[in-house]
Specification:
The protein has 329 residues and is of the alpha/beta class. Helix content is 29%, strand content 24%. α1 crosses α7 and α7 runs antiparallel to α8. The protein is globular.
Length: 329
């Protein structure tokens, strides 16, 4: 999104020069008025995957060719799209979800989870494919390894961009077909929404997609896989926010780089941390927070998510985040 540049006064010089007004270090991304695509308005529309997560905890993640015994097993609602939609809703954002589930018990269970969070499901289709799955291993240090089976998520067609619900912010990930990502980001940009892309799992991104993205939220490994910060800025991404776990985040915009520290916690499971970060970031931007403040709040949400096992169960509420930000209140 384009920001107007301040211009200096015109005409003759004043007798006594006015004190110079310092330029800001970098422009903040504007939070637009709700775009109007189909007559409705939301704070955030999330377009992405919905999976059933099959989660096993192990003492150590297995090496190639190694079998290990799990210590616990559980099934949770998941998928990066679903997780991030729940994160937005729990932070108080009016949220809509666009995705696909199968006509099976897993799909019905995921729909129930989303509906319980107050998320609009007008864009959630039921298709003739099994609901997506994610096989998740989590070790005693909270580190994880994940294999995603797309299932119904692969049926999310680019034509969903034609009826995209109107929103201040549109959030997309890469667990759906790239053609759909391209169509949605282009439609959202044309409608005037702030476009946020969480490039996970990492995949090559063409410049025409990046040119429609305002904010990109990779982790360190994903940043390397998609070409690095310089390439992303050159392709048109205004803001790159790289999450680095316990090392906080790097915020790159308008040629400047800044770092924000992580919120200190004792992690037990990192599976939902990135989704809590991206969802909270979008909810805060949609609410009108500055980029710096939105990132700072998202860091707290991401940290809190690592203190609870499972993705959706770990996503914090607005009350929990506010209490962590202002523990004296």
């Amino acid at each position: 999104m384009t920001q107007p540049n301040p211009t200096g006064p015109t005409g003759s010089e004043p007798t006594t020069p006015e004190p110079a007004t310092p330029e800001p270090a970098a422009p903040e991304p504007a939070t637009p008025e709700p775009a109007r695509l189909d007559g409705r308005a939301f704070d955030v529309v999330v377009v992405g995957s919905a999976n059933l997560d099959l989660v096993a905890t192990v003492d150590e993640l297995p090496r190639p060719g190694e079998s290990v015994r799990a210590t616990t097993y559980a099934e949770h609602a998941g998928g990066k799209g679903l997780n991030q939609a729940v994160a937005c809703a729990r932070m108080g954002a009016r949220t809509a979800f666009v995705g696909c589930v199968g006509d099976d018990p897993a799909g019905a269970a995921l729909r129930k989870v989303l509906d319980a969070e107050g998320i609009d499901l007008g864009g959630l289709a039921v298709v003739d494919e099994p609901t997506g799955r994610a096989m998740v291993l989590v070790d005693t240090r909270g580190e994880n390894s994940i294999v995603v089976v797309p299932g119904a998520n692969a049926r999310l067609d680019p034509t969903v961009a034609d009826t995209l619900p109107a929103a201040r912010v549109v959030l997309v990930q890469l667990e759906i077909p790239l053609a759909t990502v391209a169509a949605v980001t282009a439609a959202a940009r044309q409608a005037g929404a702030l476009v946020v892309l969480n490039p996970a799992p990492a995949a090559p991104l063409p410049d025409e997609v990046l040119a429609c993205v305002d904010v990109l939220t990779p982790n360190a490994g994903e940043l390397d896989a998609i070409g690095g910060t310089a390439r992303l800025h050159a392709a048109g991404v205004a803001t790159v926010i790289t999450t680095r776990g316990a090392d906080g985040v790097e915020l790159s915009r308008a040629g400047t780089l800044s770092r924000l520290d992580a919120h200190p916690v004792s992690p037990v499971d990192t599976v939902g941390a990135g989704d809590a970060f991206s969802g909270t970031l979008c909810a805060e931007l949609a609410a009108g927070s500055s980029l710096h403040d939105a990132v700072a709040t998202a860091l707290v949400a991401g940290a809190l998510a690592t203190t609870v096992r499972g993705a959706v169960p770990s996503l914090p509420t607005r009350t929990a985040v506010d209490a962590a930000v202002r523990p004296d209140r």
